[in-house]
Design brief:
- This protein has about 160 residues and is mainly α.
- It has one domain: Ferritin.
- Helix content is about 80%, strand content about 0%.
- It is built from seven helices and no strands.
- The longest helix has 29 residues.
Length: about 160
Amino acid sequence: MARTVLIGVVGLVLSTAPAWAGDAKAEVDFVTRASGANLVSIAESQLAVAQAHGTQVKAFARRLFDDHRTAEAQLQAAAVGSGAKVPTTLDQADQARVTVLRRKSGADFDKTYVADQLAVHSNALTLYGDYMLLGDNAKLNALAVEMIPIVEGQLKTAETLAGD
């Protein structure tokens, strides 16, 4: 599965290569999007630890909360000297997503949380794959390479929880 996902990421990256190659704003885009994924996962996972109905969903939320706090700290360290500022708050769309989740309960909460994490991790995997292949900043590139297997594992768990 992981190899299939990585092959798909590479294919997607190669088809969108001109969008990243030589783009002076690539670091800012990468850092902003990677931080957004971390911040929304942290916020939603914090809610899920308190509100999730299922024990497996709660355990997944605890893992994601810890993993994404670590990933955010690593991103902040890797971004030093890149010219990109790491966001510290959710953007409007992600804040709205967290607000919607906060209003849910029981199995509906779990289903929405897992669906959100599927989307976040699928997008993050593509983001890291793109930057791994086309990013120019060595520290951010190394971070992308390090994050790919972690995000693949998180995505696989989300898929299992969603019943995919």
